[in-house]
Amino acid sequence: MAAEGSNSIDALGQFQLHSALGAVGGSVNFTQSNLMMVAAGLGVMALLWMGMKPRAMVPGRLQAAAEMGYETIMGMCTETIGGPQSRKFFPFVFTLFFFILFGNLLGVFPLFFTFTSHVMVTLALSLTVFVLVTIVGIKEHGLHWFTYFVPQGIPKALAPLMVTIELISYLSRIISLSVRLFANMMAGHVMLEVFGSFIVMLGGLGLLGYFPAALSLGVNTMLIGFELLVATLQAYVFAILTCIYLHDAVHLH
Amino acid sequence: MLTYKRVRVRPTSTMKMSRWIMPLSGAGLLMLPAAAMAEGMPQLDFSTPLTLSQVVWGAIIFGVLYIMLSRTGLPLVASVLEERATKISRDLDEARAAKASADAGMAEADQATAKARADSQAAINAALNDAKSAAAAQAETLNARLEKQLQDAEAQITRARASAMSAIRQVATETAATVVTRLTGTAPDAGRLDGAIGSALAARGIG
Q1: Residues A176-211: pLDDT tens digits?
Q2: Which domain holds residue B189?
Q3: Which residues of B touch A70 (CB under 8 A)?
Q4: Reported ipTM
């Protein structure tokens, strides 16, 4: 995590994967990234189980949090996806949102790995969404679904060009969805690492370095707050975009 | 009219600090690509199997989380929310029913009051009529009795008058005979006296 030498910053070392859970984990290539995924999943389940345990008519804090999460995602599904099937997608969107949210938020803790900072993980998530959206679209509309790529009221001559553009824009959802999340999380953690290294390096310079080191500490403090915002926002963006894509698949625009 | 006061913004300590943040972060960002170039992004390091194995494990974990959430976690929340919704609606229904029964009771009470008022009015009217008719009957009997007494009295008067009138001729005849006897010393002729008395009485309208 910290700087290796006195004047080089290893900003990317934090993203290095290594196996976790000792020899057993190593033998099945279980990484610390997966450990954080398990932690995130347990966190979500703990929020619901412990939150809803009192089954109170007037909820306490944790129950209110669990219910708020439930109702926010439910509202997102019914309002954005719309239609009678929107409840069918609710568990998926809920899992997606809280998996990413807990992954992002846990990653802000020092020494904790952020699995959403790995493009392969976010790519897998966005591919899941993409495949789901495509299957839902075809299941819902059959071959008629392919008219989705033909914008209405365009001249016949322009059709091939427009279809190509629409197809590319449709496929690029995979990239945009995954890279947006990955890049946001990675950039934030690189910044934290860089300023964290500044603190160590400048603090090592002696009296002259104390002031800029303290400044870096202040910056890092602000960055942590900023990261909390980004963590929540990116999870929300991922979920809402999934809902929008599902809306398109169900309603064809 | 609105007046705008010019507010002088003092540079606060955070603002002073922000002057330092920009160059510092700029320096950090400049170092970033250099470091990335030097070592390559671990995220794209496919020489280690961990980069892809984490995705496989991730898929499993995500799938398990999805199943757990959709089977237990979310139905738990849904059941509590539903419970609350049914309780609220039941309470509302109960309140509505209570209001309806209260309204019905109110209407009943109003009706009863109106009925009691009407009954009492009828009773008052009946009593009034009874009293009126009783008073009328009483007055009638009283009138009849008084009438009868009046008639009796009149009859008595007539009788008394008649008897008095019949006595007056005898008194007048005896008185006249006595007066004439005293004055003349001789008893008057009975026939003449009777004629004179009769004409005198006739002249006065008596007998």
Answers
A1: 999 999 999 999 999 999 999 999 999 888 888 899
A2: 160-204
A3: 74, 77-78, 81
A4: 0.91
- B-chain CB neighbours of A219 within 8 Å are 21, 24-25
pLDDT at A1 over 60: no
Strand stretches in chain A, DSSP E: none
Q: What is the 3-state secondary structure (H, E, C) of B66-107?
A: HHHHHHHHHHHHHHHHHHHHHHHHHHHHHHHHHHHHHHHHHH
- Predicted confidence at residue A235, as pLDDT, reads 96
In a domain, B137, yes or no: no
User: Which strand (E) or helix (H) includes residue A137?
Assistant: helix A119-141
Q: What is the pLDDT of residues A110-138, one digit of tens each?
A: 889 999 999 999 999 999 999 999 999 99
Nearest to A193 by CA among A15, A5, A6: A15
User: Number of structural domains, chain B?
Assistant: 1
Per-residue pLDDT tens for A8-59? 788 888 898 989 888 888 899 999 999 999 999 999 999 999 999 999 889 9
Q: What is the DSSP letter of B27?
A: H
Residues paired with residue A31 on neighbouring β-strands, in sequence order: A19
* Cα A4 from chain centre: 29
Contacts of A99 in chain B (CB under 8 A): 62, 65
Share of chain B above pLDDT 90, in %: 52
**Spatial CA neighbour of A231 closest among A63, A54, A118, A107:** A107
Are B141 and B149 spatial neighbours (Cβ–Cβ below 8 Å)? no
- Tell me the two tokens of residue B152: 């009796």
- Residue B173 makes CB contacts below 8 A (sequence gap 6+) with B193, B194, B197
Average confidence (pLDDT) over A226-232: 96
Residue with tokens 């995590």: A1
Do the Cβ atoms of A219 and B21 come within 8 Å?
Answer: yes
Is B35 close to A19, i.e. CB distance below 8 A?
Answer: no
Chain A residue whose CA is closest to B66: A95
- H-helix or E-strand containing B172? helix B74-184
Q: Tell me, what amino acid is at A157? A: A
